[in-house]
């Protein structure tokens, strides 16, 4: 329905001097999309108020409404070219009037969980990068064709937006931090099984993929029969996140809105700047789902917020996640596989803390290539807070192909893991490790598949030395012959 429209928007932005990458395309599409979404939302709210016999107070002042500044129509319902701004006039209006007006909502909103507050926060972080008012006019005209009214329309819009985020992930090193393969997220959510009434948290929210998939899972009739009160609970009191980077924050908000959460509870803040000793019971969550950044290095002042000091960003996040879970809470967290075996003091201490305070019931070992451009191997840790670990079930995903941009991880790849995970059964790819047998000085949890066939027998040292001697003799003979020719 809308796929070609998105492609046409990208083609226009590709021509604009202010947009140079997939990241720019998503960012600039996002702010125009958001304002069109807001206009459709206001229309729905107005109709609902009229049907209920209530007055409706609009969010946006008249001169900043979509159908006034963006797409004024004539009597035939077509764009009124006499009233519609374009060129320099449109850029001057967007930069000088529209954005400053929208930024003010953050200070005038009643509460951070309102759509008004999100408007102010989004436009406080964004700026219009589209330099040509003629290009902006074309983008606006295309976005005006999109609709957010029916559930089918919203579903397609959310899927197309996810594709744009995926393209960012494939665009290079910086884009990769925004995208976790949806097949992997869905699998993690299915293992954790969040329930209506529980709170779900991601402290490294990125594009909000985990929160969106948890929402889709929890509202699926196969898992829950929802009442009107349940839907309100999912909308307002279930999903929470934090994000440090401005662009990721905006994309995360927009992604959740397109999935049907009108005012997402995502804070624009540095999660790691919070001292975890200050986390109280009221701050805790039932479920943590996250893929914290790989390989970041945190400054000493940030490390002071954690009992186990380390510059590794993901290891600080893991401490935060353990602390912020309620007793009995469940976590599904993606982390570099070196976490399981690193021999430095911080890694050992963190493994010890995880095993002693949580039941680490499953480690899912992923092959290389799952994360485009990241260049690291990862595992997923599944744990429940409150009781120490007695036994860990490992599953090693062994595929008969290399993963990459053109050959990504898919849900079929993960079916065997999901099926075996239910009973923690042994197989050629899965086994259990008794923690009583783990070295208490290192708490090494390295992935060592006892069922993996060794492809070839190691050669004896004497055989290797004999071959080396033979090769040396051959080399000496060749050099002797060359010398004789000179």
Please report the number of helical segments. Answer: 17
Structural class: alpha/beta
CATH class group of the largest domain? Alpha Beta
The stretches of 5 or more residues where confidence is low (pLDDT under 50) are 172-176
Strand content: 5-15%
The radius of gyration over CA amounts to: 27 Å
Quantity of strands, as a count: 9
Helix/strand order, N-terminal first = HHHHHHHHHEHHEHEEHHEHEEEHEH
Strand order of the largest sheet: 3-2-1-4-5-7-6-8-9
Spatial separation of the terminal alpha carbons: 77 Å
Which features does this protein show?
9 strands, 17 helices, 9-stranded mixed beta sheet, 2 domains, 486 residues, Ferritin, Rossmann fold, alpha/beta
Polypeptide structure, described:
This protein is of the alpha/beta class and 486 residues long. It folds into two domains: 3-149, Ferritin; 160-437, 3-Layer(aba) Sandwich (Rossmann fold), CATH 3.40.50.150. Helices cover 45% and strands 12% of the residues. It has 17 helices and nine strands. It has a nine-stranded mixed beta sheet. Strand 2 (239-243), helix 12 and strand 3 (265-268) form a beta-alpha-beta unit. Helix 10 (209-219) packs parallel to helix 12 (246-259). The radius of gyration is 27 Å and the shape is globular. Mean pLDDT is 89; it is low at 172-176.
Tell me briefly what this model is:
Helices cover 45% and strands 12% of the residues. The chain is α/β, with parallel strands linked by helices and 486 residues long.
Q: What is the secondary structure topology, with strand pairs?
A:
Layout: H1 3-15, H2 22-51, H3 66-70, H4 87-103, H5 105-108, H6 115-125, H7 133-143, H8 151-170, H9 182-192, E1 200-202, H10 209-219, H11 228-236, E2 239-243, H12 246-259, E3 265-268, E4 285-290, H13 300-303, H14 313-324, E5 325-336, H15 345-357, E6 358-365, E7 378-385, E8 391-396, H16 415-421, E9 430-434, H17 461-485
Parallel strand pairs: 1-2, 1-4, 2-3, 4-5, 6-8
Antiparallel strand pairs: 5-7, 6-7, 8-9
């Amino acid at each position: 329905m809308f796929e070609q429209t998105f492609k046409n928007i990208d083609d226009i932005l590709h021509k604009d001097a202010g947009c140079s990458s997939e990241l720019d395309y998503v960012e600039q599409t996002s702010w125009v999309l958001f304002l069109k979404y807001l206009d459709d939302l206001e229309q729905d709210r107005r109709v609902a108020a009229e049907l209920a016999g209530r007055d409706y107070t609009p969010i946006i002042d008249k001169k900043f409404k979509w159908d006034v500044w963006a797409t004024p129509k004539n009597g035939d319902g077509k764009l009124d070219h006499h009233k519609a701004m374009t060129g320099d006039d449109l850029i001057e209006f967007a930069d000088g009037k529209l954005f400053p007006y929208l930024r003010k909502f953050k200070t005038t909103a009643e509460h951070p969980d309102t759509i008004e507050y999100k408007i102010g926060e989004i436009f406080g972080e964004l700026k219009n990068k589209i330099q040509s008012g003629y290009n902006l006019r074309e983008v606006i005209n295309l976005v005006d064709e999109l609709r957010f009214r029916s559930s089918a329309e919203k579903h397609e819009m959310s899927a197309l937006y996810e594709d744009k985020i995926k393209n960012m992930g494939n665009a290079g090193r910086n884009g990769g931090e925004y995208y976790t393969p949806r097949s992997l997220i869905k699998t993690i959510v299915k293992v954790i099984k969040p329930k209506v009434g529980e709170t779900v948290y991601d402290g490294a929210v990125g594009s909000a993929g985990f929160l969106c998939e948890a929402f889709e899972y929890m509202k699926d009739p196969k898992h829950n029969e929802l009442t009107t009160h349940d839907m309100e609970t999912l909308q307002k009191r279930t999903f929470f996140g934090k994000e440090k980077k401005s662009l990721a924050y905006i994309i995360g908000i927009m992604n959740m809105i397109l999935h049907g959460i009108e005012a997402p509870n995502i804070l624009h803040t540095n999660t790691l700047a919070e001292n975890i000793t200050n986390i109280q019971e009221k701050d805790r969550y039932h479920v943590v789902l996250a893929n914290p950044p790989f390989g970041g290095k945190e400054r000493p002042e940030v490390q002071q917020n954690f009992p186990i000091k380390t510059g590794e960003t993901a290891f600080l996040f893991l401490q935060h996640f353990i602390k912020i879970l309620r007793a009995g809470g469940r976590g599904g967290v993606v982390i570099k596989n070196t976490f399981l075996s690193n021999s430095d003091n911080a890694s050992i201490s963190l493994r010890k803390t995880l095993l002693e305070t949580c039941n680490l019931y499953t480690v899912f070992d992923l092959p290389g290539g799952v994360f485009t451009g990241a260049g690291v191997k990862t595992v997923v840790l599944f744990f429940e807070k409150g009781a120490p670990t007695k036994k860990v079930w490992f599953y090693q995903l062994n595929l008969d192909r290399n993963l990459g941009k053109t050959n990504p991880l898919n849900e079929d790849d993960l079916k065997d893991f999901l099926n075996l995970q239910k009973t923690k059964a042994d197989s050629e790819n899965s086994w259990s490790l008794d923690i009583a047998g783990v070295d208490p000085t290192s708490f090494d949890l390295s992935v060592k598949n006892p069922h993996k066939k060794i492809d070839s027998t190691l050669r004896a040292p004497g055989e290797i030395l004999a071959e080396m001697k033979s090769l040396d003799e051959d080399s000496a003979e060749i050099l002797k012959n060359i010398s004789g020719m000179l």
